[in-house]
From TrEMBL:
Alphabetized SUPFAM superfamilies for the sequence: S-adenosyl-L-methionine-dependent methyltransferases
Gene3D superfamilies linked: Vaccinia Virus protein VP39
InterPro entries: Methyltranfer_dom, SAM-dependent_MTases_sf
Signal peptide stretch: none
Coiled coil regions, renumbered to chain: none
Domain Methyltransferase: 11-95
Source species: Sporotomaculum syntrophicum
A Pfam match: Methyltransf_31
Protein name, as recorded: Methyltransferase domain-containing protein
Amino acid sequence: MLKRNDLFPDTVCEIGCGAGAILEQLQLQLDNNCVFYGYDISPQAIALCLNRANDKLHFKLKDITKESNDDLFDLLLIIDVVEHIEDYFDFLRKIRIKGEYKIFHIPLEINVLRVLRGYPMINSWKNSGHIHNFTKETALQSLVETGYEIVDYFYTCNFKRLYIKYWKTCILQMVQRVAFAIHSDLAVRLFGGCSLMVLTK
């Protein structure tokens, strides 16, 4: 996403950084002068980050929505976070002013197959804490409604590699791949298997 939009940030902040692996990998890819910050409200997550910290990679056990707005980051990363936030509209409004560009990664968990089966959506709630579900359209509109300008977006798909442990899953993934190649939007609406990567201002 950064390369295809010619973005070269000097400061990057990940909100909900978890164990810090994304920032660690991103530091290897971007300019050596870029400074990285990871925020998380989980003490356990921040504890896992400590061995990744260095002079230009910092982790904070804080709620960034309650921090002052003095620091403006070049880029915010919000990766697989929105679906966990109870009042995600309030969250989106509060973080919007904290960075010039923002990259969101949002699972698209509403599709025909899931609705027909029923239980996967409840399992996602119970097992992964995904209390909100999105389509491409509702994800993008949620960002627009909270003041974001959509710059770019694309699907990220979990069926690119065949999962062959269970034959039913393998067949479904092959169907997803063929359908996606023919009509990506329709394939995602029918079969799912994708998230949305969105660049905003």
